Amino acid sequence: MRPTTPGRGSSGHFGAAAQRSRRRRATIAGIVIFALVAVFVVRLVDIQVVQAASLNADAVGKRSISTTVYGDRGEILDANGKVLAATVLRYDITAAPKFAAGYTTKVDGKSVTYTLQQTVDQLAKATGGDSATMYKALTTDKTSLYTMLVKGVDVDAYNRVVKLGITWVYPQRATARTYPDGAVAGNLVGFVGTDGAQAGLEYEYDKCLAGTNGSETYERGLDGVKLPGSTVTTKKAVAGGTLETTINSDLQYQVQQDLNEQVTALGAVSGTAVVVKVSDGSLVAVADSGSVDPNNVSATDTGDLGSKAFTQSYEPGSVFKAMTAASLIDAGLATPTSQATVPDTRTFPFGATIGDAEYHPTEKLTLAGILATSSNVGISYLGEKMSAKQRYEYMQKFGIGTKTEVDFPGEADGILNDYTKWDQLTNYTTMFGQGVASTAVQTASIFQTLANGGVRMPLKLVKACKLADGTVIDAPSETGTRVVSQKAANDVVDMLENTIPEGTLKGMQPISGYNVAAKTGTAQVPGANGKYEAGQYVISVAGIAPAENPQYVVLVTFTKPSTMKTSFAAAPAFREIMSQVLETYRVKPSTTPLTDIPDTW
């Protein structure tokens, strides 16, 4: 028998056990490692996939700043391309309160450290802002990454801010509206306020002029400093369109000057002047006394913020007789030599009385003489040959009672009640411009129609809007409408040539070298109680030149003059403005003598 070696069996037993133990530990370690890896993988998937969008947004939100890129508002131009309204570069000065602190800079080669208050004081000095307001904006919420310090500073102020080198201050490009000619055409151009377009063409054509804002983002580091090259455009800005008007700004300036001088000389409440190009109805000047300066709106009375030539209706008076005469001739009911026996007053069977402006013995006047002397009585005798319905329809065709095609903000329709509602007196007074109301531009349109051979062109203040991509919109109609025959229109223009040498403008110095056809008007002013205000009038002169080849119409009106109340008081302004128009456009002088139609029979 082989002897047994002591411990051998025990040693093998223990060796096998050790091996099993090591395997268990390795297995457990593997399981633990696998579990840990699995946890990390799950977490990684959760971070990189499940929560990626949210985490990215949070990260970007902490480092990425979004800013507005302004789409510049378009320009408004006069007929010759001169800028009436423009957008200029400005900057909003913003900051990150979270990083706001004092800063160190070099002054004369030496390092100088400023406190936050001293830094804010420097910003206020550079921008013209209020130091206390800025300091409050920077310290109210120290966790904020954005606050506005000063809005709309100019380029010089921007350069001063940049020169300070404050890393937590961020100038952002902005824009502002400016009007280079100030009050010139301010009544027409209008203005833009903090709430957007407020008046005039700025308001009417806001969709044309308004730009579309874009946006861009940039990133900044932990210290709040903008990272170079990190700016990304997220939405492209689009500039607004360019509005081309029919206004001649140089002429507009002269007309406004002349008008304001005469308003002062007459002690009038207000005045208007309208200049129309006969061939196409373009308004080349529309002036109102006391025109608003869009650069300083607060300095203007609220009643002068728009254009009274469009918004204020008035009884035009005797200038309407030209329209009545044209209607009669067109209907075959009168000629320039039609006769009437004319006393200075006329009393009707229904009890009412009308009268001429001045006493005169009974006269034998032709239609030409009635217009020249502006006889209410005379026009009533010839005008009654036409029915109320016919005259009403002619007035409608001339544009009375309906706002013009310009459709200016706040434009009035005028007043033209249905003829079936006229009383017996109104049936006669409408022949000479009472019991009916029109705006200055409507009245000017009557004379454009007569000057244009009886074809009424739609009045226009705007040529077109050109969008940033070159598209042309808002082009007005160029189609005219025949109102009366060419003969009727020409006959009236010929008759109105008598007004200056022989009629109500006798004594006005003629415009050298030009034949002028004109008509005066004097109308009482209705009061709040429905009765006429004693001694208060609207006086006017409307004229056409050259009479034999009409190119331009000029109308001037003055409301409630105090020093001189007859229509002749409007003559100096009319003459001056018409002279300037003819000179501005280098209109060829007349080469034919004045038309001489007999005033009496």
Summarize the structure.
This protein has 601 residues and is of the alpha+beta class.
What does this structure look like?
- 42% of the residues are buried.
- Helix 3 (116-127) packs across helix 4 (131-139), helix 3 packs antiparallel against helix 5 (155-164) and helix 11 (321-330) packs antiparallel against helix 17.
- This protein is elongated.
- The N and C termini lie far apart (179 Å).
- A hairpin with a 5-residue loop joins strand 16 and strand 17 (353-355).
- It folds into two domains: 71-245, Penicillin-binding protein 2a (Domain 2) (Alpha-Beta Complex); 249-293 and 306-468 and 488-584, DD-peptidase/beta-lactamase superfamily (Beta-lactamase, 3-Layer(aba) Sandwich), CATH 3.40.710.
- It has 19 helices and 25 strands.
- Strands 2, 3, 6, 7, 12, 20 and 21 form a seven-stranded mixed sheet that branches. The protein has a five-stranded antiparallel sheet with strand order 14-13-25-24-23, sandwiched between helices. The protein has a three-stranded antiparallel sheet with strand order 1-10-11.
- The protein is an alpha+beta fold.
- InterPro entries: Beta-lactam/transpept (IPR050515), Beta-lactam/transpept-like (IPR012338), PBP_dimer (IPR005311), PBP_dimer_sf (IPR036138), PCN-bd_Tpept (IPR001460).
Features:
single chain, 34% helix, 7-stranded mixed beta sheet, Penicillin-binding protein 2a (Domain 2), PBP_dimer, 2 domains, 5-stranded antiparallel beta sheet, alpha+beta, Beta-lactamase, 601 residues, 19 helices
